[in-house]
């Protein structure tokens, strides 16, 4: 894998823009309200929040799958590489360079590792396929060892590697990762995040990282958005957010310089009293 040039000191132009999005399910249930966010080219942007905050709904809107659950972008716009994604099919969105690694991996469990990678590049030529597989196996040497194994029998961490590798076979301009650390052991999470950092640094990959693991995501990201009950409640540069008292107390479970986790009762009290969550 050839290393890309060093990342620029300042973010590039927005590659993905969500502008004042309102998303409704079943014509009545508002899941996302007036949300705007931007993912500059060559940057890692983290979207954080608990279950039910609206993160996955936004990803479905971005990847063209809202209609599968009777969802609709009622107001606002979603733009990628200057074009409007509204009404665009998932296949066309992928062809344009926006690729999702879904929560839970969703591999072809009865296929081998190598066959799963092939499925990620089914429109590529044989020469392109070989080159892309070489790149994936360079990024994930363990997958090369497991390439003939059935994916459904791999460990959770290995399956996540296959899911990321399959997405990379489509040569994305923007890679969206939905909860990449979900259900994985700490050492495996460490390895996955090291890989994401390599994609950022060596491939200059633009990444939208959707996570509940706020600590790890903020260590990696350039910019952070925090979402609650369908709205963006806080956003800023990752370095600033890591030292923000609101973020430390509620999302990182800290109080001032004390690194002990806050109790559930204290967190509930804190959530009730935060003005920006009202």
Task: Label the CATH architecture of the largest domain.
Answer: 3-Layer(aba) Sandwich
Number of strands: 10
Number of helical segments with 4 or more residues: 11
- At CATH level 3, the topology of the largest domain is Rossmann fold
SSE string, helices as H and strands as E: EEEHEEHEHHHHEHEHEEHHH
| Total individual domains | 3
Query: What coarse outline follows from CA principal-axis ratios?
Result: globular
Q: Strand portion, in percent? A: 15-25%
Rg (CA only): 19 Å
Mean pLDDT, to the nearest integer, reads 85
The CATH H-level homologous superfamily of the largest domain? P-loop containing nucleotide triphosphate hydrolases
User: Cα distance, first to last residue?
Assistant: 48 Å
The portion of residues assigned to helices is: 25-40%
CATH class (first level) name of the largest domain: Alpha Beta
Helix/strand class: alpha/beta
Uncertain runs with pLDDT below 50, 5 residues or more?
Answer: 1-10, 255-259, 261-265, 272-278
Major sheet description: 6 strands, mixed
Q: Strands of the biggest beta sheet: in what spatial order?
A: 6-7-8-3-9-10
């Amino acid at each position: 894998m050839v290393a890309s040039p060093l990342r620029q000191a300042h973010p590039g132009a927005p590659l993905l823009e969500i502008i004042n999005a309102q998303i409704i399910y079943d014509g009545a249930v508002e899941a996302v309200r007036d949300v705007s966010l931007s993912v500059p080219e060559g940057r890692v942007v983290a979207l954080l929040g608990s279950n039910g905050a609206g993160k996955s709904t936004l990803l479905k809107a971005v990847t063209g799958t809202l209609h599968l659950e009777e969802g609709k972008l009622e107001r606002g716009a979603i733009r990628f590489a200057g074009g409007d994604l509204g009404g665009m099919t998932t296949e066309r969105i992928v062809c344009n360079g926006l690729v999702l690694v879904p929560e839970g991996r969703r591999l072809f469990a009865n296929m081998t590792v190598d066959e799963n990678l092939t499925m990620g590049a089914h429109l590529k030529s044989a020469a392109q396929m070989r080159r892309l597989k070489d790149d994936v196996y360079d990024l994930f040497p363990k997958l090369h060892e497991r390439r003939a194994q059935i994916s459904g029998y791999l460990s959770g961490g290995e399956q996540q590697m296959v899911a990321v590798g399959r997405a990379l076979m489509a040569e994305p301009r923007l890679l969206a990762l939905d909860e990449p650390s979900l259900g994985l052991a700490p050492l495996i999470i460490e390895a996955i995040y090291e890989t994401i950092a390599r994609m950022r640094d060596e491939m200059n990959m633009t990444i939208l990282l959707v996570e509940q693991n706020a600590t790890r995501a903020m260590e990696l990201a350039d910019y952070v958005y925090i979402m609650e009950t369908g709205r963006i409640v806080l956003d800023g540069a990752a370095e600033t957010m890591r030292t923000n008292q609101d973020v430390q107390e509620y999302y990182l479970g800290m109080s001032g310089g004390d690194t002990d986790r806050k109790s559930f009762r204290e967190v509930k009290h804190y959530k009730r009293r935060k003005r920006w969550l009202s």
